[in-house]
Amino acid sequence: MNLFIYQLKQAFLGLKKKPAFVFSVVSTMGITLGALLCVVTLAYVMLIKPLPYPEQERLFLVESTVVDKDQKKIFSAFNYRSLVNLYRKQTSFESAALLAYGKNVLVSQPSQPQVITTYVTPETFELLNIPMVIGRSFGIDEQLDSYNPVAILSYDTWQNEFAGSIDILDEKLVVDNVSFSIIGVVAERFVEPKTYYIKHPLTDVWFPWDYNYISAERRKETGSMSLDTMFL
Fold it and tell me: Are 195 and 99 in contact (CB under 8 A)?
C-alpha cells in the first residue's frame, strides 16, 4: 500500500512538470466523452425512444411510390381517387386515416394570419390519441363526405389568435369563404408526428378531410398525383 501511494505521488509530481501534456490529455478525453454521449443520445432519440402514441409499434405510414421504367423510385405521391379508394376498402389495418397538408388565411381574424392547416378523417385523433384541452375531436359527424364545417385549433393558435378565450367554442373562423364552427382545442402537450417531411411546420388548424385543397376536378382525375396527402 505504501509503495502504491509513493508511486502515485511520483506520478503526480511528474505531471506537474508537464502541464501542457496534462491539458492535452484531459481535453482530448473530454471531447471524446462528449462526442460519445452525443452519439448515444442521438441514437436513443432516433432509434430506441418510443413514440408518444398508444401502441406505437402498430402505427404505419403507407407510401405510394412513383417509379421510372427501370423501377427506380422517382418520388412518393398518391393519386387522390386511389387514396380514397384505399381508405374505403382496405382490410389490412384495424383503423386507417387520411391526412392532407396545406396553408390558408384566416380571413375572419383582424390580422388575417396565414396558418398551417391539416385535413384529416376522424380516425387521426384516435390513432394518435390527440388530447383535447377544450371541446371534442372529430367524430362520426365529420366522416368522409359529411361536409360538416367544423374546425379544431392548436393550443398556440388558440392563445395567439384568440387570446385563449374560454368562449372559443362559441366562435367561428372563415377560410376559403367557408365559415367553420370551432369545436375543440388540442392540448399543449400533444406531440405532432412528422408524417410529411421533418421540417414541416406544426399544424395550426385541423379541418375535416372533405375540405382539403384538392379541387373537385382533380379528385376525379386518374393521373393527378399529390405529394402532401398521407395514409396513416
Answer: yes
Name, in order, each residue with C-beta under 8 angstroms of 220's C-beta and a sequence gap of 6 or more.
81
> Distance between CA atoms of 232 and 102, rounded to whole angstroms?
17
Average confidence (pLDDT) over 190-198: 80
Pair 18, 96 in one domain: no
**pLDDT at residue 98, rounded to an integer:** 94
**In sequence order, what are the beta bridge partners of 132?**
186
Helices (H), the chain: 2-16, 19-43, 80-89, 123-127, 155-162, 216-220
Burial of 80 from C-beta contacts in 10 A (0-12 / 13-18 / 19+): buried
Return the SS3 of 140: helix
Residue showing cell 427506380? 72
Residue 96, amino acid: A
Domain that holds residue 70: 56-231
Rounded CA separation 179/147 (Å): 12
Q: Over the stretch 134-149, which tens digit does the pLDDT of each residue have?
A: 999 999 999 999 999 9
Backbone dihedral region for residue 221 (phi beyond 0: left; psi -120 to 50: alpha; all else: beta): beta
223 pLDDT band, cuts 50/70/90, is: confident
Cell representation of residue 141: 359527424
pLDDT bucket at 222, cuts 50 / 70 / 90: confident
Residues 60, 43 share a domain? no
User: Do both 226 and 113 map to the same domain?
Assistant: yes
Number of domains in the chain: 2
Of 118, 73, 141, 148, nearest in space to 232 by CA: 118
